[in-house]
Design goal:
The structure holds 2 protein chains of 2 kinds. By secondary structure, chain A is an alpha+beta fold. Chain A contains 4 helices and 5 strands; from the N terminus they run βββββαααα. Chain B has a domain of 123 residues: HypD, alpha/beta domain 1 (Rossmann fold, 3-Layer(aba) Sandwich). The longest helix of chain B has 17 residues. Classes of the chains: A alpha+beta, B alpha/beta. The structure holds iron/sulfur cluster (SF4).
Chain lengths: 100, 374
């Protein structure tokens, strides 16, 4: 749960007095609240935790981190189907991991 | 993944490891506070690449793991009520309460929903004005600001069918408790990077000074962890105990001021029980008086549920770094991620689950491999 994933801001809107962004996490797109990073701009990267941008990140380190997370299957863990994960014991079987 | 060529920048990894090997002259025990770091260390075999004198003790920094059984039982009770839609992060589904978990409550007809963000739970409340929507607000300082904002917005927009079951925990009091424990072996801390992204570093100098332990703010990727270890060991070898930031790309000294201000407004510091460890003074947050009407515990009168932990699970010792997961009798036999006895086996950030995933095939206790860079 504590995973904070870097993402790139695609666009920004205001709804009900709240600043919201559409953010791309290496292909997965989510709505993200910008209230804690109100001056974040379209095209910039930020560390996002449970739908909230918490800190700006430079593009290079953001891309590095995203690549690593996707290689390790951590994006799937964060954005995948939690019911399926829970039904399977919440974690991938050891054999699968060993093959990586 | 025990091989250095699998690191993102093997050249840099090797340089950091060489430097650590060259610096160490004595045994040192370091604790990585955050469960995300534990996961990364075990997954990449970082502990096995380090010099033998360096022991990494896995700290209590997995919010899923430290949420007390009592709170899980309260969640299960609330989630079972017919008028309730219970929203939670996915990793709480399999955390065992007394006799069942949220996954089972859903199987028995409970309306349990998984959300990505706490704001999603607020949306569910707007869309279902005739139901009670409860969000399970747990986590460390990283998760607290999103949850705080959600309660704040509920109040601002007058969404009265929303409430939160709050069991937030704070890292610095846990470090304090670990250092005060008579069994404490920890000599240096890798502090949790994203906690400091929010809170900054000002809580740490006093702690470091009082207990004469270096505290190095550290990220989660393998190279970040090596850098954190390198700096901590360098301080220890010099006899210093300062606070350093080894994760500057994500952590500013002051943290995120807007988030800190929101935390001040919505929450107040309280004593909090940690699963397997017990009550740690001032180690939690609860809703402040201004937001108390959004407290699910009061709304559903579950405040008096009391439970005690199963004796077989030794996660309390694991969480304090007194026992390695694979030294627990039940590890990998009666206790697996599919049939967890304790919360440290549920979340992939929990030390028991990390060992189960990456160390199960090794003998007990895990052997130290000859380091390829020694
Ligand atoms: S292996 Fe299972 S029973 Fe043993 S300490 Fe870990 S969670 Fe508890």
């Amino acid at each position: 749960m504590c995973l904070a994933v870097p993402g790139r801001v695609l666009d920004i809107q205001e709804r009900d007095g709240t600043r919201l962004a559409t953010v791309d996490f290496g292909g997965v797109v989510k709505e993200v609240c910008l209230e804690y990073l109100p001056d974040l701009q379209v095209g910039e990267y930020a560390i996002v935790h449970v739908g909230f941008a918490l800190q700006r990140l430079d593009e290079e380190s953001a891309r590095h981190t995203l690549e690593l997370f996707s290689e390790l299957g951590m994006l799937q863990e964060e954005f995948g189907d939690p019911w399926e994960a829970a039904a399977g014991g919440g974690l991938p079987p050891v054999g699968e991991e060993a093959r990586k | 993944m025990k091989y250095i060529d699998e690191f993102q920048d093997p050249e840099l990894a090797r340089r950091l490891l060489d430097e650590i090997h060259a610096t160490v002259t004595r045994p040192w025990a370091l604790m990585e506070v955050c469960g995300g770091q534990t996961h990364s260390i075990i997954r990449h075999g970082i502990d096995q690449l380090l010099p033998e004198q360096i022991e990494l003790i896995h700290g209590p920094g997995c919010p899923v793991c430290v949420t007390p059984l009592e709170v899980i039982d309260k969640a299960l009770e609330i989630a079972s009520r017919p008028e309730v839609i219970f929203c939670s992060f996915g990793d709480m589904l399999r955390v065992p309460g007394t006799g069942r978990d949220l996954f089972q409550v859903r199987g028995e007809g409970g309306d349990v929903r998984v959300v990505y963000s706490p704001l999603d739970a607020l949306r569910v409340a707007r869309e279902n004005p005739d139901r009670q929507v409860v969000f399970f607000g747990i986590g460390f300082e990283t998760t607290a600001p999103p949850n705080a904002m959600t309660v704040h917005q509920a109040r601002r927009h007058g969404i009265r069918n929303f409430s939160m079951l709050v069991s937030h925990v704070r890292v610095p009091p846990a470090i304090e408790a670990i250092m005060r424990s008579p069994d404490c072996r920890v000599q240096g801390f890798l502090a949790a990077g994203h906690v400091c992204t929010v809170m900054g570093v000002d809580e740490y100098p006093a702690l470091a000074g009082r207990h004469r332990v270096p505290i190095v703010v550290t990220g989660f990727e393998p190279l970040d962890i090596l850098e954190g270890v390198r700096r901590t060991v360098a301080q220890l070898e010099r006899g210093e105990y300062g606070v350093e930031n080894a994760y500057p790309r994500a952590v500013r000294a002051e943290g995120n001021l807007a988030a800190r201000a929101m935390l001040e407004d919505v929450f107040e510091v309280t004593d909090r029980a940690w699963r397997g460890i017990g009550v740690i003074p001032d180690s939690g947050w609860r809703l402040s008086a201004k937001y108390r009407e959004y407290d699910a515990e009061a709304r559903f009168s579950v405040g008096d549920i009391r439970t005690s932990e199963p004796a077989e699970c030794r996660s309390g010792e694991v969480l304090q770094g007194l026992l390695k997961p694979n030294e627990c009798e039940a590890f990998g036999t009666r206790c697996t991620p599919r049939t967890p006895l304790g919360a440290t086996m549920v979340s992939s950030e929990g030390a028991c689950a990390a060992y189960y995933l990456y160390r199960r095939l090794e003998t007990t206790p895990a052997p130290r491999e000859a380091s390829p860079v020694a």
